[in-house]
Structure formats: C-alpha cells, structure tokens
Amino acid sequence: MYLGTEFAALAVLRGACRARWRHRGPEALKLTFHTNRAFIAQSIGSIEMSYIDGFVIAVPKGNRQKFIEHAKRADAVFVEYGARRLLECWEDDVKEGKLTDFRRAVQAKDDEAVVFSWIEGADKSTRDAAMSKLMSDPRLSPESNPMPFDGKRMIFGGFSPVIEIGNRA
Predict the structure, then answer these.
(1) Which of 18, 24, 26, 36 has the most CB atoms at less than 10 Å from its CB?
(2) For the purposes of burial, counting CB atoms within 10 Å of the CB of 21, is it exposed (0-12), middle (13-18) or buried (19 or more)?
(3) Are 55 and 105 in contact (CB under 8 A)?
(4) CB within 8 A of 113, min separation 6: which ones?
(5) What is the pLDDT of residues 95-129, one digit of tens each?
(6) Which pTM was predicted?
C-alpha cells in the first residue's frame, strides 16, 4: 500500500466534504464522507507502484547524435516489452562533488558527457519477465545496435519507488 496516495486522497476528501458542508449542510457531509472514504479505501488497496531501471553512462561528446540514434532503437524495443516511459538525459548541469559525483561514478573523461537514463515499468514482475527477452533480442546486440560509449563504465540498477507524486505516463 502506498501511504502517500492515502494522504493525498484524504486531502481531496476533506476538500469535497468542506464544499458539501457549505452548500448542503451537515447531512450531506456525512454521506459524502462515508461514500468517499469507502471509495478511497477500495482504491488504495489496488495501487501498484512502478518499477524503475536507472542508468548512468559516459558518452563521448562527439557521439551525441550516435547515442540518440542508438537510444531510439533500443528504447523502441524496451517499449515493445512493456516499458511505460523512458528518459534519456544528456548532461546539462553536472557539478563536481567533494567526495563523489556523476562524473566520477562512471569515470567520465574531459571529452565525455554524463547521460542519466531511466525506464519506468509497470512493476518488477513485468520487468523481470521482459529482461531475459531483452537480453536475447537481436535488435539490441552490439552488431545491430553498437553502443557509442564504453558499456563497461555504465552503472545501473533496479529500484522500487517509495514515493510517487504526479501523473503516470
């Protein structure tokens, strides 16, 4: 269960109750509160969190367009296997940290840009089922879609969100 959604739903409910009270009196308030509370309780039980795969890579700055083309081909395959949303983000404001930072994490050289990417899936089980298919899909092989960066320095991992705010894609 996602507690943040419950709080948001209760805030909406409180606003609806206040509006009913002002326009229809206390009896309408009781009906609104009980009806909406039952709806919210029913809805909260069915909320399922997304699953996120995150990636950080160093790409030679001269390969920006090659990277974009590579990502478009690969991302289409990810969508085919169930990805809901993907973002490929080129370094814009990546500061040097005192202890660590994005550039050090991927051992980026002076002529490389950091790329931060993430893939949103419906849930972990959907992602897990798709992963073996993705790894064996010939469209993602280095021969058919060569990586314009050093894949050995890529960092990646799967993440279960603990808070989601905003609209889903």
Answers:
(1) 36
(2) middle
(3) no
(4) 58, 59, 60, 61, 64, 90, 91
(5) 999 999 999 999 999 999 999 999 999 999 999 99
(6) 0.69
